[in-house]
Specification:
single chain, 561 residues, Alpha-Beta Plaits, Rossmann fold, 2 domains, five-stranded antiparallel beta sheet, 12 helices, globular
Protein backbone atom coordinates (compact mmCIF):
# COMPACT_ATOMS: atom_id res chain seq x y z
CA UNK A 1 0.00 0.00 0.00
CA UNK A 2 0.99 3.65 -0.32
CA UNK A 3 1.95 5.64 2.74
CA UNK A 4 1.32 9.34 2.32
CA UNK A 5 4.29 11.63 2.54
CA UNK A 6 5.58 14.96 1.36
CA UNK A 7 5.36 15.33 -2.41
CA UNK A 8 8.76 14.74 -4.01
CA UNK A 9 10.76 17.85 -4.68
CA UNK A 10 10.97 18.93 -8.32
CA UNK A 11 14.72 19.14 -8.50
CA UNK A 12 16.01 21.83 -6.14
CA UNK A 13 19.40 23.29 -6.95
CA UNK A 14 22.12 20.89 -5.90
CA UNK A 15 19.61 18.14 -5.10
CA UNK A 16 17.72 15.51 -7.02
CA UNK A 17 14.96 13.03 -6.26
CA UNK A 18 15.54 9.27 -6.15
CA UNK A 19 13.67 6.03 -5.80
CA UNK A 20 15.52 3.92 -3.23
CA UNK A 21 14.65 0.22 -3.15
CA UNK A 22 14.99 -1.52 0.20
CA UNK A 23 16.89 -4.82 0.11
CA UNK A 24 14.81 -7.96 0.63
CA UNK A 25 14.94 -8.89 4.31
CA UNK A 26 16.22 -5.49 5.43
CA UNK A 27 14.19 -3.20 7.66
CA UNK A 28 12.87 0.15 6.60
CA UNK A 29 14.60 1.63 9.62
CA UNK A 30 17.99 0.39 8.42
CA UNK A 31 17.34 1.73 4.92
CA UNK A 32 16.34 5.13 6.30
CA UNK A 33 19.52 5.25 8.34
CA UNK A 34 21.57 4.51 5.20
CA UNK A 35 19.72 7.26 3.34
CA UNK A 36 20.45 9.79 6.07
CA UNK A 37 24.10 8.76 6.15
CA UNK A 38 24.32 9.31 2.39
CA UNK A 39 22.86 12.80 2.75
CA UNK A 40 19.27 12.05 1.75
CA UNK A 41 15.83 12.83 3.17
CA UNK A 42 12.81 10.53 2.76
CA UNK A 43 9.74 12.30 1.33
CA UNK A 44 7.40 9.38 0.54
CA UNK A 45 7.14 5.61 0.87
CA UNK A 46 5.54 2.69 -0.94
CA UNK A 47 5.49 -0.19 1.52
CA UNK A 48 4.01 -2.67 -0.97
CA UNK A 49 7.26 -2.95 -2.90
CA UNK A 50 9.72 -1.33 -0.49
CA UNK A 51 10.50 1.95 -2.21
CA UNK A 52 11.41 5.22 -0.55
CA UNK A 53 11.31 8.50 -2.44
CA UNK A 54 14.29 10.55 -1.38
CA UNK A 55 15.60 14.07 -1.89
CA UNK A 56 19.40 13.94 -1.89
CA UNK A 57 22.54 15.54 -3.35
CA UNK A 58 22.53 15.51 -7.14
CA UNK A 59 25.89 13.74 -7.37
CA UNK A 60 27.30 10.69 -5.62
CA UNK A 61 24.19 9.67 -3.71
CA UNK A 62 23.32 6.54 -5.73
CA UNK A 63 26.63 4.80 -5.13
CA UNK A 64 26.89 5.95 -1.51
CA UNK A 65 23.46 4.68 -0.49
CA UNK A 66 23.76 1.44 -2.48
CA UNK A 67 26.87 0.56 -0.50
CA UNK A 68 24.57 -0.20 2.44
CA UNK A 69 23.41 -3.80 2.91
CA UNK A 70 19.94 -2.43 3.63
CA UNK A 71 19.56 -0.91 0.17
CA UNK A 72 19.13 -2.82 -3.08
CA UNK A 73 19.73 0.23 -5.26
CA UNK A 74 18.60 3.71 -6.26
CA UNK A 75 17.44 5.39 -9.44
CA UNK A 76 16.81 9.05 -10.23
CA UNK A 77 13.17 10.11 -10.12
CA UNK A 78 13.48 12.48 -13.04
CA UNK A 79 10.87 13.43 -15.60
CA UNK A 80 11.95 12.61 -19.11
CA UNK A 81 12.62 15.70 -21.19
CA UNK A 82 12.40 16.53 -24.86
CA UNK A 83 14.86 18.57 -26.88
CA UNK A 84 14.49 22.33 -26.31
CA UNK A 85 11.93 23.85 -28.60
CA UNK A 86 10.46 20.50 -29.59
CA UNK A 87 7.06 21.28 -28.11
CA UNK A 88 5.14 19.62 -25.32
CA UNK A 89 2.43 17.56 -26.98
CA UNK A 90 4.25 15.29 -29.42
CA UNK A 91 4.08 11.61 -28.56
CA UNK A 92 7.18 9.46 -28.42
CA UNK A 93 7.94 7.10 -31.27
CA UNK A 94 7.40 4.20 -28.89
CA UNK A 95 3.81 5.19 -28.23
CA UNK A 96 2.42 6.36 -31.54
CA UNK A 97 4.19 6.03 -34.83
CA UNK A 98 3.59 7.76 -38.15
CA UNK A 99 1.42 10.81 -37.74
CA UNK A 100 1.78 11.46 -41.45
CA UNK A 101 -1.95 11.04 -41.97
CA UNK A 102 -3.37 12.13 -45.29
CA UNK A 103 -6.82 12.82 -46.59
CA UNK A 104 -9.87 13.95 -44.68
CA UNK A 105 -12.00 11.59 -42.66
CA UNK A 106 -15.75 11.95 -42.90
CA UNK A 107 -17.32 13.96 -40.09
CA UNK A 108 -20.48 12.41 -38.75
CA UNK A 109 -23.59 14.61 -38.94
CA UNK A 110 -24.69 15.46 -35.38
CA UNK A 111 -28.06 13.97 -34.52
CA UNK A 112 -30.13 13.07 -31.53
CA UNK A 113 -29.51 9.69 -29.94
CA UNK A 114 -31.48 7.70 -27.35
CA UNK A 115 -29.95 7.36 -23.91
CA UNK A 116 -30.34 3.64 -23.38
CA UNK A 117 -29.59 2.28 -19.92
CA UNK A 118 -26.59 -0.09 -19.79
CA UNK A 119 -27.59 -3.75 -19.92
CA UNK A 120 -25.92 -7.14 -20.03
CA UNK A 121 -26.07 -6.98 -23.81
CA UNK A 122 -25.91 -3.98 -26.09
CA UNK A 123 -25.59 -2.87 -29.69
CA UNK A 124 -23.22 -0.63 -31.63
CA UNK A 125 -22.79 3.15 -31.70
CA UNK A 126 -23.06 5.60 -34.65
CA UNK A 127 -19.33 5.86 -35.42
CA UNK A 128 -18.51 2.19 -34.87
CA UNK A 129 -18.55 1.53 -38.60
CA UNK A 130 -14.99 2.95 -38.66
CA UNK A 131 -13.81 0.62 -35.87
CA UNK A 132 -12.45 -2.31 -37.85
CA UNK A 133 -10.56 -3.38 -34.73
CA UNK A 134 -13.85 -3.89 -32.90
CA UNK A 135 -14.96 -6.29 -35.61
CA UNK A 136 -11.61 -8.06 -35.91
CA UNK A 137 -11.73 -9.06 -32.22
CA UNK A 138 -15.45 -9.83 -32.64
CA UNK A 139 -16.60 -7.49 -29.89
CA UNK A 140 -19.53 -6.54 -32.12
CA UNK A 141 -21.07 -10.00 -31.79
CA UNK A 142 -19.67 -10.83 -28.33
CA UNK A 143 -21.75 -8.07 -26.74
CA UNK A 144 -24.93 -9.88 -27.66
CA UNK A 145 -23.78 -12.44 -25.09
CA UNK A 146 -21.66 -10.28 -22.77
CA UNK A 147 -21.01 -6.54 -22.99
CA UNK A 148 -19.22 -6.27 -19.67
CA UNK A 149 -20.22 -5.85 -16.06
CA UNK A 150 -20.04 -2.63 -14.04
CA UNK A 151 -18.52 -4.64 -11.20
CA UNK A 152 -15.40 -5.28 -13.32
CA UNK A 153 -12.78 -2.54 -12.98
CA UNK A 154 -10.14 -1.82 -15.62
CA UNK A 155 -7.21 0.41 -14.74
CA UNK A 156 -5.71 2.66 -17.40
CA UNK A 157 -2.07 3.29 -16.43
CA UNK A 158 -1.33 6.04 -18.90
CA UNK A 159 -1.26 9.85 -19.39
CA UNK A 160 -4.67 10.23 -17.76
CA UNK A 161 -8.27 9.71 -18.79
CA UNK A 162 -10.72 12.45 -19.77
CA UNK A 163 -13.58 11.46 -17.49
CA UNK A 164 -15.81 14.15 -19.00
CA UNK A 165 -15.72 12.76 -22.55
CA UNK A 166 -19.28 11.71 -23.46
CA UNK A 167 -18.17 8.19 -24.35
CA UNK A 168 -16.01 7.76 -21.22
CA UNK A 169 -18.15 9.49 -18.58
CA UNK A 170 -20.88 6.78 -18.29
CA UNK A 171 -18.26 4.16 -17.34
CA UNK A 172 -15.73 6.35 -15.53
CA UNK A 173 -15.14 5.69 -11.83
CA UNK A 174 -14.05 9.05 -10.47
CA UNK A 175 -13.97 7.85 -6.85
CA UNK A 176 -11.22 5.30 -7.44
CA UNK A 177 -9.25 7.28 -10.05
CA UNK A 178 -5.92 8.79 -9.03
CA UNK A 179 -3.06 10.80 -10.56
CA UNK A 180 0.43 9.78 -9.42
CA UNK A 181 2.32 12.39 -11.43
CA UNK A 182 3.26 16.04 -11.08
CA UNK A 183 3.38 18.12 -14.27
CA UNK A 184 6.87 19.39 -15.08
CA UNK A 185 6.81 22.51 -17.29
CA UNK A 186 10.45 22.28 -18.48
CA UNK A 187 13.21 19.73 -18.65
CA UNK A 188 16.65 20.13 -17.06
CA UNK A 189 17.94 22.15 -20.02
CA UNK A 190 15.04 24.61 -20.00
CA UNK A 191 13.26 23.00 -22.93
CA UNK A 192 9.51 22.46 -22.84
CA UNK A 193 8.44 19.19 -21.22
CA UNK A 194 4.79 19.22 -20.11
CA UNK A 195 4.27 22.93 -20.71
CA UNK A 196 2.61 25.41 -18.33
CA UNK A 197 0.75 23.87 -15.41
CA UNK A 198 -3.01 24.02 -15.89
CA UNK A 199 -3.93 23.31 -12.28
CA UNK A 200 -2.78 24.35 -8.82
CA UNK A 201 0.36 22.62 -7.67
CA UNK A 202 0.94 21.23 -11.18
CA UNK A 203 -1.24 18.25 -10.28
CA UNK A 204 -4.00 17.51 -12.79
CA UNK A 205 -7.35 16.22 -11.52
CA UNK A 206 -7.91 12.48 -11.80
CA UNK A 207 -10.46 12.95 -14.59
CA UNK A 208 -8.14 15.01 -16.81
CA UNK A 209 -5.87 14.04 -19.71
CA UNK A 210 -3.69 16.69 -21.30
CA UNK A 211 -1.79 14.22 -23.47
CA UNK A 212 -4.65 12.34 -25.12
CA UNK A 213 -2.95 8.94 -25.20
CA UNK A 214 -4.70 7.57 -22.12
CA UNK A 215 -8.15 8.68 -23.25
CA UNK A 216 -7.64 6.96 -26.60
CA UNK A 217 -6.64 3.77 -24.79
CA UNK A 218 -9.60 4.01 -22.39
CA UNK A 219 -12.04 4.48 -25.25
CA UNK A 220 -10.87 1.32 -26.99
CA UNK A 221 -11.21 -0.66 -23.76
CA UNK A 222 -14.57 0.56 -22.57
CA UNK A 223 -16.24 3.51 -24.30
CA UNK A 224 -19.93 3.22 -23.47
CA UNK A 225 -22.38 1.77 -25.98
CA UNK A 226 -24.85 4.58 -25.35
CA UNK A 227 -26.04 5.53 -28.82
CA UNK A 228 -23.34 8.22 -28.98
CA UNK A 229 -20.01 8.32 -30.82
CA UNK A 230 -18.04 5.08 -30.50
CA UNK A 231 -18.14 2.05 -28.22
CA UNK A 232 -15.31 0.02 -26.73
CA UNK A 233 -14.49 -3.67 -26.69
CA UNK A 234 -16.12 -4.02 -23.25
CA UNK A 235 -18.67 -1.18 -23.28
CA UNK A 236 -20.26 -1.82 -19.86
CA UNK A 237 -17.20 -2.23 -17.60
CA UNK A 238 -15.89 0.42 -15.20
CA UNK A 239 -12.83 2.49 -16.18
CA UNK A 240 -10.37 3.73 -13.55
CA UNK A 241 -7.62 6.25 -14.26
CA UNK A 242 -4.37 5.34 -12.47
CA UNK A 243 -2.19 7.92 -14.14
CA UNK A 244 1.55 7.28 -14.23
CA UNK A 245 2.58 9.23 -17.36
CA UNK A 246 3.45 12.87 -17.95
CA UNK A 247 1.40 15.12 -20.26
CA UNK A 248 4.23 14.82 -22.77
CA UNK A 249 3.91 11.04 -22.90
CA UNK A 250 6.87 9.96 -20.76
CA UNK A 251 6.71 7.47 -17.88
CA UNK A 252 9.20 7.19 -15.05
CA UNK A 253 9.70 4.69 -12.31
CA UNK A 254 8.02 5.89 -9.11
CA UNK A 255 4.62 6.90 -10.53
CA UNK A 256 4.40 3.59 -12.40
CA UNK A 257 5.17 1.59 -9.25
CA UNK A 258 2.72 3.64 -7.19
CA UNK A 259 -0.04 3.27 -9.81
CA UNK A 260 0.41 -0.50 -10.02
CA UNK A 261 0.32 -1.09 -6.28
CA UNK A 262 -2.60 1.31 -5.77
CA UNK A 263 -4.55 -0.44 -8.53
CA UNK A 264 -3.90 -3.78 -6.86
CA UNK A 265 -4.99 -2.50 -3.46
CA UNK A 266 -8.33 -1.10 -4.66
CA UNK A 267 -9.29 -4.29 -6.47
CA UNK A 268 -8.77 -3.58 -10.15
CA UNK A 269 -9.31 -6.64 -12.33
CA UNK A 270 -7.24 -5.59 -15.36
CA UNK A 271 -4.51 -2.98 -15.84
CA UNK A 272 -3.53 -1.80 -19.31
CA UNK A 273 0.09 -0.65 -19.74
CA UNK A 274 0.77 0.96 -23.12
CA UNK A 275 4.24 2.39 -22.42
CA UNK A 276 7.79 1.58 -21.41
CA UNK A 277 9.51 2.92 -18.31
CA UNK A 278 11.93 5.76 -19.07
CA UNK A 279 14.71 6.73 -19.48
CA UNK A 280 15.98 3.34 -20.69
CA UNK A 281 14.27 1.57 -23.59
CA UNK A 282 16.19 -1.49 -22.43
CA UNK A 283 17.04 -1.80 -18.73
CA UNK A 284 20.20 -3.90 -18.29
CA UNK A 285 21.66 -5.32 -15.11
CA UNK A 286 25.31 -4.64 -15.97
CA UNK A 287 25.78 -3.27 -19.47
CA UNK A 288 29.50 -2.45 -19.90
CA UNK A 289 28.53 0.58 -22.02
CA UNK A 290 26.86 2.17 -18.95
CA UNK A 291 28.39 3.97 -16.00
CA UNK A 292 28.31 2.28 -12.56
CA UNK A 293 25.55 4.67 -11.46
CA UNK A 294 23.49 3.94 -14.58
CA UNK A 295 23.87 0.21 -13.98
CA UNK A 296 22.62 0.59 -10.42
CA UNK A 297 19.67 2.66 -11.61
CA UNK A 298 18.65 0.04 -14.18
CA UNK A 299 18.96 -2.84 -11.73
CA UNK A 300 16.77 -0.85 -9.35
CA UNK A 301 14.19 -0.24 -12.07
CA UNK A 302 14.05 -3.93 -13.01
CA UNK A 303 13.64 -5.05 -9.40
CA UNK A 304 11.11 -2.37 -8.44
CA UNK A 305 8.90 -2.91 -11.49
CA UNK A 306 9.00 -6.66 -11.04
CA UNK A 307 8.04 -6.35 -7.37
CA UNK A 308 5.09 -4.15 -8.36
CA UNK A 309 4.00 -6.60 -11.08
CA UNK A 310 4.25 -9.50 -8.64
CA UNK A 311 2.23 -7.56 -6.09
CA UNK A 312 -0.53 -6.74 -8.59
CA UNK A 313 -0.67 -10.29 -9.94
CA UNK A 314 -0.88 -11.63 -6.40
CA UNK A 315 -3.84 -9.34 -5.74
CA UNK A 316 -5.75 -10.68 -8.75
CA UNK A 317 -4.87 -8.19 -11.47
CA UNK A 318 -4.54 -9.31 -15.11
CA UNK A 319 -1.66 -7.30 -16.57
CA UNK A 320 -1.68 -6.39 -20.28
CA UNK A 321 1.33 -4.70 -21.94
CA UNK A 322 2.03 -3.13 -25.32
CA UNK A 323 4.76 -5.10 -27.07
CA UNK A 324 6.58 -1.98 -28.30
CA UNK A 325 7.08 -0.17 -31.59
CA UNK A 326 10.78 -0.72 -32.27
CA UNK A 327 10.18 -3.28 -35.08
CA UNK A 328 12.46 -5.87 -33.52
CA UNK A 329 12.44 -9.40 -32.18
CA UNK A 330 12.48 -8.89 -28.42
CA UNK A 331 14.29 -12.21 -28.10
CA UNK A 332 17.13 -10.86 -30.23
CA UNK A 333 17.17 -7.07 -29.73
CA UNK A 334 19.31 -4.72 -31.77
CA UNK A 335 21.69 -2.12 -30.36
CA UNK A 336 19.75 0.37 -28.25
CA UNK A 337 20.34 3.77 -29.88
CA UNK A 338 17.78 5.78 -27.92
CA UNK A 339 18.76 5.45 -24.27
CA UNK A 340 18.92 7.22 -21.98
CA UNK A 341 16.41 9.74 -23.29
CA UNK A 342 16.98 12.11 -20.38
CA UNK A 343 18.76 14.50 -20.09
CA UNK A 344 18.26 15.63 -23.69
CA UNK A 345 20.98 14.51 -26.12
CA UNK A 346 22.39 11.99 -23.66
CA UNK A 347 21.70 8.76 -25.57
CA UNK A 348 24.51 6.58 -26.90
CA UNK A 349 24.75 3.18 -28.64
CA UNK A 350 24.31 0.30 -26.19
CA UNK A 351 24.78 -3.30 -27.38
CA UNK A 352 22.01 -5.35 -25.76
CA UNK A 353 22.46 -8.74 -24.11
CA UNK A 354 19.02 -10.36 -24.22
CA UNK A 355 19.77 -12.45 -21.11
CA UNK A 356 20.38 -9.39 -18.90
CA UNK A 357 18.30 -6.61 -20.51
CA UNK A 358 14.54 -6.04 -20.36
CA UNK A 359 12.00 -3.72 -21.96
CA UNK A 360 9.63 -2.93 -19.08
CA UNK A 361 6.89 -3.54 -18.24
CA UNK A 362 6.10 -5.74 -21.26
CA UNK A 363 9.01 -8.14 -20.58
CA UNK A 364 8.19 -8.40 -16.89
CA UNK A 365 6.75 -11.55 -15.31
CA UNK A 366 2.95 -11.94 -15.44
CA UNK A 367 2.54 -9.41 -18.28
CA UNK A 368 0.60 -10.47 -21.38
CA UNK A 369 2.52 -8.80 -24.21
CA UNK A 370 0.55 -7.82 -27.33
CA UNK A 371 1.77 -7.24 -30.88
CA UNK A 372 -0.02 -4.96 -33.37
CA UNK A 373 -1.87 -5.84 -36.58
CA UNK A 374 -3.31 -3.88 -39.44
CA UNK A 375 -6.82 -4.38 -40.88
CA UNK A 376 -5.50 -7.07 -43.26
CA UNK A 377 -4.13 -8.91 -40.16
CA UNK A 378 -0.54 -8.33 -41.30
CA UNK A 379 1.89 -7.59 -38.49
CA UNK A 380 2.28 -3.82 -38.48
CA UNK A 381 5.70 -2.75 -39.72
CA UNK A 382 6.59 -0.98 -36.46
CA UNK A 383 5.45 -3.73 -34.08
CA UNK A 384 7.91 -5.69 -31.98
CA UNK A 385 7.53 -9.47 -32.25
CA UNK A 386 9.18 -12.78 -31.34
CA UNK A 387 8.28 -16.03 -29.59
CA UNK A 388 10.04 -14.97 -26.40
CA UNK A 389 7.52 -12.24 -25.53
CA UNK A 390 4.56 -12.06 -27.93
CA UNK A 391 1.59 -13.67 -26.20
CA UNK A 392 -1.30 -12.30 -28.27
CA UNK A 393 -1.89 -10.08 -31.26
CA UNK A 394 -4.58 -7.42 -31.69
CA UNK A 395 -5.58 -4.49 -33.90
CA UNK A 396 -3.08 -1.67 -33.46
CA UNK A 397 -3.33 0.09 -36.81
CA UNK A 398 -0.98 -0.03 -39.78
CA UNK A 399 -0.89 3.12 -41.89
CA UNK A 400 0.88 1.37 -44.78
CA UNK A 401 -1.45 -1.62 -44.91
CA UNK A 402 -3.33 -2.37 -48.12
CA UNK A 403 -0.54 -1.76 -50.63
CA UNK A 404 -2.09 -1.58 -54.09
CA UNK A 405 -5.55 -0.65 -52.77
CA UNK A 406 -7.36 2.61 -52.03
CA UNK A 407 -6.77 1.97 -48.31
CA UNK A 408 -2.98 2.27 -48.56
CA UNK A 409 -1.61 5.10 -46.40
CA UNK A 410 -5.02 6.24 -45.16
CA UNK A 411 -6.30 7.16 -41.72
CA UNK A 412 -8.86 4.40 -41.92
CA UNK A 413 -6.07 1.84 -41.46
CA UNK A 414 -5.53 3.22 -37.97
CA UNK A 415 -7.50 2.90 -34.72
CA UNK A 416 -10.16 5.50 -33.97
CA UNK A 417 -11.01 6.31 -30.36
CA UNK A 418 -11.91 9.10 -27.93
CA UNK A 419 -10.04 12.42 -28.09
CA UNK A 420 -10.09 15.01 -25.26
CA UNK A 421 -11.46 18.38 -26.38
CA UNK A 422 -8.63 20.26 -24.64
CA UNK A 423 -5.98 18.22 -26.49
CA UNK A 424 -7.74 18.66 -29.83
CA UNK A 425 -7.88 22.41 -29.23
CA UNK A 426 -4.21 22.60 -28.20
CA UNK A 427 -3.15 20.65 -31.28
CA UNK A 428 -5.09 22.97 -33.58
CA UNK A 429 -7.41 20.20 -34.72
CA UNK A 430 -10.49 22.13 -33.58
CA UNK A 431 -11.08 25.84 -33.13
CA UNK A 432 -12.35 27.70 -30.07
CA UNK A 433 -15.95 27.06 -31.14
CA UNK A 434 -15.32 23.33 -31.36
CA UNK A 435 -15.33 23.14 -35.15
CA UNK A 436 -12.87 20.80 -36.84
CA UNK A 437 -10.09 22.72 -38.57
CA UNK A 438 -8.51 21.79 -41.93
CA UNK A 439 -5.61 20.26 -39.98
CA UNK A 440 -8.08 18.21 -37.97
CA UNK A 441 -9.84 17.02 -41.09
CA UNK A 442 -6.55 15.93 -42.61
CA UNK A 443 -5.75 14.00 -39.43
CA UNK A 444 -9.12 12.26 -39.54
CA UNK A 445 -10.54 13.96 -36.45
CA UNK A 446 -14.30 13.37 -36.16
CA UNK A 447 -17.02 15.04 -34.10
CA UNK A 448 -20.33 13.66 -32.88
CA UNK A 449 -23.00 15.70 -31.13
CA UNK A 450 -26.29 15.11 -29.37
CA UNK A 451 -27.78 18.53 -28.81
CA UNK A 452 -25.15 20.63 -27.07
CA UNK A 453 -23.09 17.60 -26.02
CA UNK A 454 -20.23 16.84 -28.41
CA UNK A 455 -17.43 14.30 -28.44
CA UNK A 456 -14.24 14.21 -30.50
CA UNK A 457 -12.40 11.24 -31.96
CA UNK A 458 -9.04 10.71 -33.63
CA UNK A 459 -6.97 8.03 -35.31
CA UNK A 460 -3.73 6.61 -33.89
CA UNK A 461 -1.58 3.52 -34.30
CA UNK A 462 0.89 1.55 -32.23
CA UNK A 463 1.06 -1.44 -29.94
CA UNK A 464 -0.41 1.10 -27.51
CA UNK A 465 -3.63 0.67 -29.48
CA UNK A 466 -3.34 -3.14 -29.66
CA UNK A 467 -3.00 -3.71 -25.91
CA UNK A 468 -6.36 -2.09 -24.99
CA UNK A 469 -8.19 -4.43 -27.39
CA UNK A 470 -6.76 -7.31 -25.35
CA UNK A 471 -7.55 -5.54 -22.06
CA UNK A 472 -11.16 -5.12 -23.15
CA UNK A 473 -11.45 -8.83 -23.90
CA UNK A 474 -9.83 -9.66 -20.55
CA UNK A 475 -12.49 -7.51 -18.87
CA UNK A 476 -15.21 -9.44 -20.72
CA UNK A 477 -13.69 -12.70 -19.45
CA UNK A 478 -13.91 -11.49 -15.85
CA UNK A 479 -17.45 -10.23 -16.51
CA UNK A 480 -18.55 -13.61 -17.87
CA UNK A 481 -16.81 -15.97 -15.48
CA UNK A 482 -15.82 -13.92 -12.44
CA UNK A 483 -17.05 -14.52 -8.90
CA UNK A 484 -17.89 -12.08 -6.13
CA UNK A 485 -14.75 -10.57 -4.65
CA UNK A 486 -14.87 -10.95 -0.87
CA UNK A 487 -11.98 -8.50 -0.45
CA UNK A 488 -13.83 -5.82 -2.39
CA UNK A 489 -17.60 -6.20 -1.92
CA UNK A 490 -19.70 -5.28 -4.91
CA UNK A 491 -17.03 -6.29 -7.43
CA UNK A 492 -16.13 -9.40 -9.39
CA UNK A 493 -12.79 -11.19 -9.52
CA UNK A 494 -11.12 -13.96 -11.49
CA UNK A 495 -7.58 -15.27 -11.12
CA UNK A 496 -5.28 -13.61 -13.69
CA UNK A 497 -3.89 -17.05 -14.52
CA UNK A 498 -7.41 -18.17 -15.46
CA UNK A 499 -8.02 -15.01 -17.49
CA UNK A 500 -4.75 -15.63 -19.32
CA UNK A 501 -5.73 -19.24 -20.03
CA UNK A 502 -9.07 -18.17 -21.55
CA UNK A 503 -7.42 -15.46 -23.68
CA UNK A 504 -4.84 -17.89 -25.04
CA UNK A 505 -7.17 -20.84 -25.64
CA UNK A 506 -9.89 -18.81 -27.37
CA UNK A 507 -7.66 -16.58 -29.51
CA UNK A 508 -8.10 -17.00 -33.26
CA UNK A 509 -5.08 -19.02 -34.51
CA UNK A 510 -3.06 -17.35 -37.24
CA UNK A 511 -0.11 -19.05 -38.92
CA UNK A 512 3.06 -17.30 -40.00
CA UNK A 513 2.88 -15.72 -43.45
CA UNK A 514 4.56 -17.43 -46.38
CA UNK A 515 7.30 -16.66 -47.00
CA UNK A 516 8.05 -16.37 -43.29
CA UNK A 517 10.52 -13.52 -43.76
CA UNK A 518 8.57 -10.34 -44.47
CA UNK A 519 10.24 -7.33 -46.05
CA UNK A 520 8.60 -3.93 -45.67
CA UNK A 521 10.81 -2.30 -48.26
CA UNK A 522 7.91 -2.30 -50.74
CA UNK A 523 6.18 0.19 -48.42
CA UNK A 524 9.34 2.32 -48.19
CA UNK A 525 10.71 0.96 -44.94
CA UNK A 526 14.48 0.31 -44.60
CA UNK A 527 15.84 -3.22 -44.45
CA UNK A 528 16.01 -3.19 -40.63
CA UNK A 529 12.19 -3.55 -40.58
CA UNK A 530 12.46 -7.00 -42.20
CA UNK A 531 11.01 -9.58 -39.80
CA UNK A 532 11.01 -13.37 -39.72
CA UNK A 533 8.10 -15.24 -38.16
CA UNK A 534 9.05 -18.35 -36.18
CA UNK A 535 6.57 -20.96 -34.92
CA UNK A 536 3.38 -22.66 -36.09
CA UNK A 537 -0.31 -21.85 -36.24
CA UNK A 538 -0.80 -22.55 -32.53
CA UNK A 539 1.97 -20.20 -31.41
CA UNK A 540 4.38 -17.97 -33.31
CA UNK A 541 6.36 -14.79 -33.04
CA UNK A 542 3.99 -12.53 -35.01
CA UNK A 543 0.65 -13.56 -33.51
CA UNK A 544 1.53 -15.33 -30.27
CA UNK A 545 -1.34 -17.65 -29.35
CA UNK A 546 -3.46 -15.86 -31.94
CA UNK A 547 -5.64 -12.79 -32.47
CA UNK A 548 -7.54 -11.97 -29.32
CA UNK A 549 -11.21 -12.98 -29.72
CA UNK A 550 -13.98 -11.48 -27.61
CA UNK A 551 -16.73 -13.76 -28.92
CA UNK A 552 -14.69 -16.90 -28.43
CA UNK A 553 -13.74 -15.79 -24.94
CA UNK A 554 -17.31 -15.24 -23.70
CA UNK A 555 -18.82 -18.28 -25.43
CA UNK A 556 -16.10 -20.93 -25.11
CA UNK A 557 -13.92 -19.63 -22.31
CA UNK A 558 -15.65 -21.72 -19.65
CA UNK A 559 -14.28 -24.86 -21.29
CA UNK A 560 -10.78 -23.84 -20.21
CA UNK A 561 -11.41 -22.86 -16.59
Amino acid sequence: MLVAGVQPALGQQGTADYTVLVEVGATGQAARAAIRAAGGRVTAENTAVGTLTVSAPATGFVQRVTASDAVFGAAPVTPIGQLPGSGNRSAREWHEVESEHVGAAKVATPKAAPKAAPSATTGLDPLDDALWGLRLVRSDIARVRQAGDRRVYVGVLDTGVDGTHPDIAPNFNRVLSRNFTIDIPNDSTGGVLDGPCEFRGCVDPADHDDGGHGTHVAGTIGAAANGFGVSGVAPNVSLVNIRGGQDSGFFFLQPVVDALTYGADVGLDVINMSFFVDPWYMNCTANPADSPEAQIAQRTTIAAIQRALNYAHGKGVTLIGAGGNNHEDLGSPRTDQSSPNYPPRSSYPRPIDNATCLNLPTEGDHVISVSALGPSTLKADYSNYGTEQTALSAPGGYFRDGLGTDWYRTNENLIRSAYPRNVALGAGNIDADGNITPAGLAAGVAKYCDGSTCGYYRYAQGTSMAAPHASGVAALVVSQYGKHDRSHPGTLTLSPDKVEQVLYKTATPRACPEPRTVSYENVDRPAEFTATCVGDATFNGFYGHGIVDAYGAVTRGGDFL
